[in-house]
Write a structure and sequence with these properties.
With about 400 residues, the chain is α+β, with helices and mostly antiparallel strands. It has helices spanning about 5-10, 25-30, 55, 60-65, 80-85, 90-105, 125-130, 145-155, 330-350; strands at about 15-20, 40-45, 45-55, 70-75, 110-115, 160-170, 170-180, 190-195, 200-210, 210, 220, 225-230, 230-235, 240, 245-260, 265-280, 285, 300-310, 310-325, 355-365, 370-380, 385. Among the domains are: about 5-85, ACT domain (Alpha-Beta Plaits); about 90-180, Roll (Ubiquitin-like (UB roll)); about 265-325, no CATH class.
Length: about 400
Amino acid sequence: MSVPALISYFRGYLTITVTGRFCERFINVCANRKILLWDIKKISPYSVRCKISVSAFKKLATIAYHTGVTVHINVKHGFPFFLRRYKKRKIALFGVLIFLIAVISANQFVWDIEVRGNYKIPEDKIISALNESGLKIGMPISRIDQQELKKDALLSIPELAWLWVEKKGSKVIVDVREKIEVPEIFSPSDYCNIVASKDAIIENMTVKNGVPVVEKGETVLAGTVLVTGKIPVPAKMLDRYVRADAEILARVWYDRREVFSKISTTRHETGNTKNHYTLHFFGKDIPLFHKNISPYKEFDATEKRYTLFGLGFTKKSYEEITLHEELLSDGSVADFGAAQIMQKLEEEVAPNSTLKTSEVSYTVLNDSTIEVCVKAEYLENIALVQKEEVPKDLN
């Protein structure tokens, strides 16, 4: 609503209809006498509709008489007529005024805190840290010290790289950025060895820098030095320390076992739904249902929250479902389990690895479960750079 419109609302204005053969003359006379008419619309050959302020309407009687038109009030607008309507209903009017005062006052306090930008750090942990720093539901907005909150939160939660608090009415929005783990960076001048990342049998070695310590076909354990960055220099009777660099392809075996159920459960919606409501009153939660009563034996739940100035409610909807069980064959469960295990293995092996062989077997444990075993051989790069300390007497 614009400022002129807001002023007109509080002063009060009327929608009127002017009827007669000389409507245009009526409008011209009003303009000459500086009586403001707006939203003028011709609704028939001999009538127009327009709006006029209450104070100006009192001056129309003489103008209407001399121009031969009649004026009819259609609608009364504005705050004065609202008050007049509720004049006899003083309790209702008093209630409206109290509500308006409460809304305006409530907007000066914090009634909702929203955290944005967090992925790994739980929202509860961030809000708890902010609460300890003084940001709480119900506190005055004016008491929020954004710089102080930022400093305290970053000190209490090391995983955060950045935090800022923004005030929007009675809502506080907390934007955060989490720290990104930076991998260890090696300098070309560092002394590094290449060690085995896993137990394996060496298949092929491509050494770009350093001295190989093992040979093709040799079995190594995780952590074994494969290529050393310590290079002897016989002519000078000393050692040179470099950063070893190599690609070590090796055969790595994996033996994974997991237990799977032979019972397949399917879910079917019944169409029955129940809602539970929780009232939120200035930071307090008031359940409007019996906490210990579950609506259905099996169900799916969805939740929506509505908040305004610290007052609101949560609607939790429960949709009833029925579960149907089916006993699957041993072979189908074994195939499913093997696929699941192989998917996990693909995430575990080194990038660009090659599957050489795989073997699947299973054992029936009882009527409802079987154990699936997957043995797989991969050809993968097991080279792992490990930084070493140069002996002090050579620094």
